[in-house]
Amino acid sequence: MSSLLYYALPALSSYVMLSIFFLRRPRLLHTPWVSAFCPRLGAHRGGSGERLENTMEAMENAVAQRADLLELDCQLTRDGVVVVSHDKSLSRQSGVNRDVGSLDFEELPLYKEELEVYFSPGERVGCQRRAEPAGVGSQPQPPALFSPLGPTPSPRACSPPPQQSFSDPSSHNPSGHFAHGSDRHMVRLEDVFRSFPRMPISVEVKEQNEELIRKIAGLVRHYERDEITIWASEKSSVMKKCKAANPEMPTAFTISRGFWVLLLYYLGLLPFISIPERFLISFLPTIINRTYFPFSCSGLNQLAAVVSKWLIMRKSLIQHLEQRGVQVVFWCLNEESDFEVAFRLGATGVITDYPTALRRYLDNHGPPAPAS
């Protein structure tokens, strides 16, 4: 045993020192990715806190606030049109109990006159979520699988309490509310590409729909925007098909790949492993149990907040990824205090429901220098 320790301890010490050295200086081993854009201000669903989500009006508003990235989800209609829609079902968005894929594009219903903003401050009480300040209600978040990349919540399971609305983005109050807008039409992805030819866009694909993936890839090629359109998906099986359909597009981490990077980081192996992804789009742990409720049980949410904060909020990890050209973007942040935390950690940018609020923050403060 003593002879084993005699050789093992020096070897382990050498490994630890090398790992720390290359964690801080990864460019000695890896050529960093060079991105065509830097997404400091990302608009979640086009900016769903200030206009109705995923509408052309929302995206135009985000562009007016000098957004650097539009974060969108896509579905396929029955007649093969790629549309911008977060949900497969039209129930939450339009009040119609049909799937997007069961209707032709021209048959798609209008959005409701008001849609709830998911990531608004509140407190979960059983099946209900009590928003702050008092008197402002917010519909509850359903249970969802917790992950370091943060799954997008599914449609609500409970009925909403009465709501107070805030439709004026200039007087934004991030406490839970419904968004409004004059534009209630679902849009084609092609129309978005035509309207914003040089705007970087993150396109999330939720299911293994090969026709949808193929058509998105074809549209990206047709409009010559391979370098400024991100493939995003929670599922590695879907991402594999996305990369095969258009390998020129940059990719974001999937959930399993996010876990893998965390594991490599804590084992000290990350500096020695290649990273094909160019974007880590992750939830910020500080929003759990405030604006993001991955579990229906408040105790689990509190535990998730503590554990994820300990695991993810590591400046050395974020700085290592940034030095390798992997841009770290935190979502979905709607309060100035969270903007501050994200940028102090060294994040490239933030995805928000309120592009006006984030633009005001960036213009007034600029991104704070990462804390040492």
What do these coordinates show?
By secondary structure, this protein is of the alpha/beta class. It has a single domain, classed as Phosphatidylinositol (PI) phosphodiesterase (TIM Barrel), CATH 3.20.20.190. It contains 11 helices and 13 strands. It has helices spanning about 1-25, 55-65, 90-95, 190-195, 210-220, 235-245, 255-265, 300-310, 315-325, 335-345, 355-365, and strands at about 40-45, 70-75, 80-85, 115, 120-125, 130, 135-140, 180, 200-205, 230, 280-285, 325-330, 350. Strands 1, 2, 3, 9, 10, 11, 12 and 13 form an 8-stranded mixed sheet that branches. The protein has a 3-stranded antiparallel sheet with strand order 5-6-7, with no helix packed on it. It has a two-stranded antiparallel sheet with strand order 4-8. The radius of gyration is 21 Å and the shape is globular. It starts with a helix and ends in a 7-residue tail after the last helix. About 45% of the residues are buried. Residues about 120-175 have low confidence and may be disordered.
Classify the secondary structure makeup into a structural class: alpha/beta
Q: Detail the poorly predicted runs.
A: 122-175
CATH topology, what is it called?
TIM Barrel
CATH fourth-tier homologous superfamily: Phosphatidylinositol (PI) phosphodiesterase
